[in-house]
Structures
1.
Amino acid sequence: MTTNYSRRAFLGLGAAVGGGMLLSACGGGSASGGGDGGTLKFWDMPWGQANYTAAAKKLTEAYQPAGSLPGATYQGLQWANFSQTFSSAIASKTGPAVSTGGGFQAFQFADQGAIAYADNVINQFRQDGTFDDFLPGQLDAMKTAKGYAAVPWQLDFRIWWYRKSLLDAAGVKVPTTWDELLTACRTLAGRKLFGFGTGAGAGNNLGSQGLHLMMLNNGGGLFNADGKVEVVTEANLEAMRFVQDLVKAKAVDPASISYTTDNLITQWRNKRVAMGIHTAGLDTDTGETDGDLQVMGPLTGPSGAKAGLVFQNNIMMYADTPSQEGSEAFLSYYIKNMKTLWQQNVVAGLPVLKSIVALPEFQAQKQKAKIIAEWAPVAKTFAANSPTLFGGLAAVDSSQPITQFAQTVLAGQDPKPALESLQKALEAIVK
Amino acid sequence: MTLTAACPKTEVARTRKPRRARRTLLVLVAPSLVLLLLINAYPLVYAALQSVRDGSLINAGDYVGFENYRATLTSPAFWRSVQFTLIFTVVGVFGSWLGGLGLALLLRTRIPGRTVFKTLLLLPWVVPVVVSSTAWNWLVATPQSPLPSLAQALGLGTPLFLADPVLAKVTVCVFKVWISVPFMMMLIGAALAGVDRTVYEAADVDGATRWQQFRHITLPMISRSTYISWILMTIFCVNDFPTIFLLTGGGPVDATTSLVVLSYRTVFQNFQVGPGVAIAFVMTASLVVVSVALYRQIRKAHV
């Protein structure tokens, strides 16, 4: 049997097929944002070594929602281009209901109306006692004029480390003040060792964050008490001139302005770096947990102040969710049960809950326990001297101006024009 | 008497038939056209709108007219990026072309292991940039890396290939040439294969030297391919993000920040969407002008 189609019928069929394809393409992804098939989407960043994601996924999948509340699915994300990933997903309403992410992401998205404030969760924490389990000041850091933008779950410090064997061999005592630091750096430089290990190359923010820590240590910072950019201050200038002295004392590797994080870790591992500012995970990153790499105590600056730099990594809820009550229930569950991640030792960051700090598994990690004991009480946020965090911070950390500033100062150039350029550039970014 | 009435019936039918056929063809390509418009034109129009707004990655923001373009064109950072983009493109295009031409000519001769040699030469182009940039980073990043160590051994000091602004520019450009030479080699090799060897035999009989043969036969005969390769490589270089970003991130102190890197950093690191997209549009417009100029050269090429 043969079937004859007229040209008109053929064209009609073609149009129908094309139109159908077009409609299906346009309507792709029928699930609403935040949900997938009636469950909440939880997006998480890689917060530790390879085994972290498996542990966090297991924790998510163990969630048993009460009554008719939705369950949760886990999606691990990479840091590469994470801003685009979140932004495009939120704009196209295919984003998560709950997520971890950049330290200031919640504040940034809150400014754009994409965040569901966590006040209900915090109120519930007040009632069940979890509120008091948070380390002092950590919940307050999440507070904005409209409510709690997120709930902190781990802390990411920038702190001083030293390699004990190199200091011992050079007869250098662990510095406690800036003056001692400079003296120690000079002695170490005589042995071709770097006393201010850092890196400001592609994707490496440790250089700019290290300089920021020095500013904070001297009572300075990037912002004033009103949350406005104010970097050209005497305190900052003095701190950066001290860094310039360190550069002159050959404490800074001239190649470090182009070091990626991997390059810097390699230099630590190869024992080229004797002291430096790094994250809390340096010993894990280098694969050396034998005690040769040790955390220094906070240094006393020229004004007598001590300070550290801390990023409160947080879990945020999004306005676009299948169930706000469901998002809150899941977030509450995650915070109350996340101790397993520290018991398994899979997280690079430090706990934000006192009950986790007290765990024997955590206390066994001596360097991390020292950070909580000595650095947490003096640590300041990236927004200091502003009392609160805000959305504009996301555009400052790892931005082009701050990276350029770090590379300029670490190259030993005059810090004053560098600070003036930074002021101008940050004013254009932070609104 | 009307014109139609003057025409014989068969002629009217003959003129109507192609018109109907054209309409049919138009209807047949319509779905593809619609899809192309949705895939290409929609993002382009949306980006154009973003470039005249003060928005974020999520919200469109307020209309600001051509303020973003004004800010871009008066920014020193933009002009520094233009300068580096020009250097990167000129070195990338002509460096890879010269390398590719040299290798293609070499591979025309009967050298032992030519096929193996050809395959090995393709590796820089075939290997993902992420892998090759990691390898180059290992080669040059620290004073203890192989190349700085070699320079030290030769008494040339310790060159900071990625930390010194001038050396970083050189390193990035050389990296780009290294990656692109195989592509040029293939294009030129294909063009050379199409050149009739009898022309060279005739030139030999006429007493032309090797240089004269190269200048007056080879170059003109491959000119069309040459111009095409220049257009393609210009586009590749101007739009090249990973080569630069993975190796230097645009540093040190913005020394290797090209326009595409500047655009990316403005949008996704500084979260200034309007100005970042404006940079991309200025870059695209410049690229179109260069491509059209080179395309005209292709049409003038006599082979």
2.
Amino acid sequence: TNSFSEQTLWMLAVRDQRDRAAFGLLFDHFAPRLKGVICRSGISQGQAEDIVQDVMLTVWRKAHLFDPQRAQVSSWIYQIARNRQIDVIRKERRPVPEELKQPEEVQEDAAQIVALEQETSRLREALKRLKPAQREMVEKAYLGELSHSDIRAETGLPLGTIKSRIRLGLERLRHELKGTETS
Amino acid sequence: MSSITHHIPDELLIAYASGSLEQAFSLVLAAHISMCDECRARLGAHEAVGGAMLENACGTEAGMAVSADLKARLLDALDDPVEPAPPAYHRSGVFPGPVMEALGGLPPKWKPLGMGVRQSILSHGKGGSVRLLYIPSGQAVPDHGHNGLELTLVLQGAFHDETGRFGVGDVEIAGSDLEHTPVAEEGAACICLAATDAALRFRSFIPRLLQPVFRI
Ligand SMILES: [Zn+2]
Ligand SMILES: [Zn+2]
């Protein structure tokens, strides 16, 4: 198919129209998933729900930073959730890379967004096809249950094409930025 | 920027993405990614895996129903006054945004280490230590080994050691098996951001005596 996923459409409605109904749908979709993933780190259900609430509030408040050419809604929310968990559990603020300035008026490239979505669904399917033991290792690594010396980078997941898609999105953004700086 | 040849390996990017990387190393990664689109895109790919796991979490034991009133409470909170966001730090001179944040927006306070080498400690604690190093051109950092992992990001100038040459944006990853003597190249002084999770082992006698004093 050549259209955006529901999640992307909801997120764009939140970002561009501050659409509360769409935000409610995002909540219905992500809150149980977030809670399940957060509870894996041995956090109480109550505290996990506090984190879910903080994460979703951040989604609402930082919606203007969402760029579907560089990240899917799910990976953007994953990042926010990891930051919040570090904040709550370790009482630390994870150093984050400098945010790339968004130009005021961007013409988003729908084809680029769709291509990134397609790569991401291929990735999800690949994750499902992993052997249980391998999938368990991948989940542990990405949920922070392994130390960096225990993580082996070969996951058998198709990351190269996603990387090139994200890279294209970055190049486009840099290009747009140059345009706004000279005009 | 495109001249960066030494990047961040995947296992460190994954540890960073998942939040399990020590604070000191996280600062080096955040600084490198601020300078390197290649690693920014690779980090994005790893975050896509995290996102895909989140998406897949339903339908398994991993998805969990939330309390009935959580959504209503959240929707009510959307209009709450927002605490002012902490200031966003941007690159200043050779220091990328995350380093400026660690410096609290102020220039580094350099302390002499001898032979023209200077350091400015950004943090020192159980999450490892991270510092800025200033090495005059042609000067060597005393020969040393590592008890753990050391990440060194070049912010200005260049250095070389037994393993190769490192210019602006390059990251050297040194494990406990590496014993090296980094030497700053001719030209501008070399300024690096260096993080370790354990004390360095100096071969010569004097630096070892001074180690507790300088916290290196
Ligand atoms: Zn890189
Ligand atoms: Zn070293």
